[in-house]
Amino acid sequence: MNRQRAAGPLFVAPFMVLFLLLFLAPLGYAAYLSLFQERLIGGTAFVGLDNYTQALSDPQFLHGIGRVALFFVIQVPVMLLLALAFALALDSGLLRLARVVRLGIFVPYAVPSVVAALMWGYLYGPDFGPFAQLGRSLSLPVPDFLGDGWMLASLANIVTWEFVGYNMIILYAALRTVPEELYEAAAVDGAGAWRIAWSIKLPALRPALMLTLLFSVIGSFQLFNEPKLLMTIAPDVISSSYTANLYAYTLAFTGQQVNYAATVSFLLGLVIVIASYAVLLTANRRRTP
Amino acid sequence: MTTTTPTATTAGPVRTVPAATPARPRRGARRSTPLTIAMLAVLAYFLLPLFWLLIASTKSTQDLFNSFGLWFSHAPQFLTNVRQTFTQDDGVFVHWLLNTVLYAGVSAVGAALLAAAGGYGFAKFRFRGDRISFNLVLGAVMVPTTALAIPTYLLFAEAGLVNTPWAVVLPSLVNPFGLYLMRIYAQDAVPDSVLEAARIDGAGEARIFFRIALRLLAPGLVTVLLFTLVATWNNYFLPLIMLNDPDLYPVTVGLSSWAAQAQNGGAGASSDMLALVVTGSLVSIVPLVVAFLLLQRYWQSGLAAGGVKQ
């Protein structure tokens, strides 16, 4: 028993050591750095929470957060509803070629977001993008996908394309674990397909939906790859502070404002944790009124 | 997620989802043609960009501008493009591919083993501080990795690790969600009775782990491995900030640097850069897509384990 007591910590030690060094230490370091400011004269000075007050009234930071919040509020419901619809369609058993459809929808997940953003960027293109080409040859107006008014929607489309399949598989896998007897019992009671979906399948999907929602919060708020890639095609539309994460990157690597960048990263992490908790709490309250 | 979700229930038995089973054959259920057609339309949307990429990789940069995007041009030159992609800048693209394989492979194997040992330790042993340590890891699932990346960069810069492969591999080794998955997996996949029996036979704990537990954990291990592999293969932010020597780039950062060149340097039909970006993109996604098709059984059961249990 003694030997056993010693073994537990030894098994978790390698992970926990790296976790401390590579997870908690950077977090602590960011917190520490965020309390200092580099001054032209006098070097680095302790400034308390000055960086935070600066960030919280910094329009570039606030716009970045606002933009990803808007993105989250619109893109995530669309993506999750689509994923849910596809998962239910696959699970219904009414589909021919179900395997092909499932794989086809999932395949974009295996495509790096860099490649996804590049491909869609070229597809959106006003010169040789096929949509623009088709529009020209049919004399139909094609929206300026890379223009100011459309950019957020274009980014949302890329992210949706990448992750619908991933979310669909999580939901579909959860559906497959519903015991067959439940359906049989419901059928005996005269429940139709819609009724079964509403009363049996959706409740069974709750934990899986929570998981996908949580991952989506984390993903949306740290949006970076797609806007960074499209920035090279549409530099006038996507500024270097388009999303909060892009802003932190710009501050650290082009502005050399290390302390402020750490503040922005730290705040962004805080926003994500708060948003995640808010989502979890709301979802939980709705279940047990 | 025990701490983060108040809805948490204790984990039931892990149900590995049989991905290979066909959709539920329900009595009296007929295949629906309208639904099938609707889903095929959906499928077209998801495959359109990949179809475009396939077509585009057969074109010269000039034809990319001058021919219809969704069909072949008069002078397909796929092999020329591939050859140019691989020989551009003294074959730097080959470096990128090998770097990606190296970073993703080492990270995935390392992360999976660390998560397996940790998950097993948390699932099967009680020790001082086990609960608080595990909750700390669980909470970390919510901390965004990209928000962590900049402070990590600053720390690594002080330690002199920036612009080395370590800078990309080390942070990828810690996968809190992987540890969480391995813990719930280990709880059921490794029965206590088996451990007790081995102990009575006099086997040491390390031996029990490597000889018995690891084998029972194999399916869970493969899932964590696969997902870390995809995550690191596709990673962009971390290598982008950590590396500045093109010879060390993974393929994602390399392609984005080419894309930037195509846009700024030789914009227009005169440069060959665009064709290289397109062909390089195609070449870079083939291995992962193939791997996913071959390993469907694993990724599906892995996603199931994460989605069913909280």
How does the SSE layout of this entry go?
The complex is a heterodimer of chains A (289) and B (310).
Chain A: H1 2-33, E1 36-39, E2 43-46, H2 50-56, H3 59-91, H4 98-106, H5 113-124, H6 130-137, H7 151-176, H8 180-188, H9 193-221, H10 225-233, H11 244-253, H12 258-287
Antiparallel strand pairs in A: 1-2
Helix pairs in contact in A: 1-12, 3-7, 3-9, 3-11, 4-7, 5-7, 5-10, 7-9, 9-12, 11-12
Chain B: H1 33-56, H2 61-66, H3 78-124, H4 130-140, H5 145-159, H6 165-172, H7 176-189, H8 192-200, H9 205-216, H10 218-233, H11 237-242, H12 251-264, H13 273-294, H14 296-308
Helix pairs in contact in B: 1-13, 3-6, 3-7, 3-10, 3-13, 4-7, 7-10, 10-14, 12-13
Q: Output the helix-strand order of chain B.
A: HHHHHHHHHHHHHH
Number of helices of chain A: 12
CATH domain topology of chain B: MetI-like fold
How many DSSP H or I helices of chain B? 14
CATH class of chain B: Mainly Alpha
Oligomer: heterodimer
* Rg of chain B: 24 Å
Q: What's the average pLDDT of chain A?
A: 89
Biggest protein-protein interface? A-B, 111 and 117 residues
Q: Kindly state the mean pLDDT of chain B as a whole number?
A: 83
Q: Can you tell me the CATH superfamily of chain B?
A: MetI-like
Q: Termini of chain A, distance in Å? A: 46 Å
**Helix and strand element order of chain A:** HEEHHHHHHHHHHH
The CATH architecture of chain B comes to Orthogonal Bundle
Show unreliable segments of chain B.
1-22
Structural class of chain A: mainly alpha
Q: How many domains, in number, for the residues of chain B?
A: 1
Q: Could you estimate the helical fraction of the residues of chain A in percent?
A: over 70%
Family (chain B): Belongs to the binding-protein-dependent transport system permease family.
InterPro entries (chain B): MetI-like, MetI-like_sf
Protein name (chain B): ABC transporter permease
Subcellular location (chain B): Cell membrane
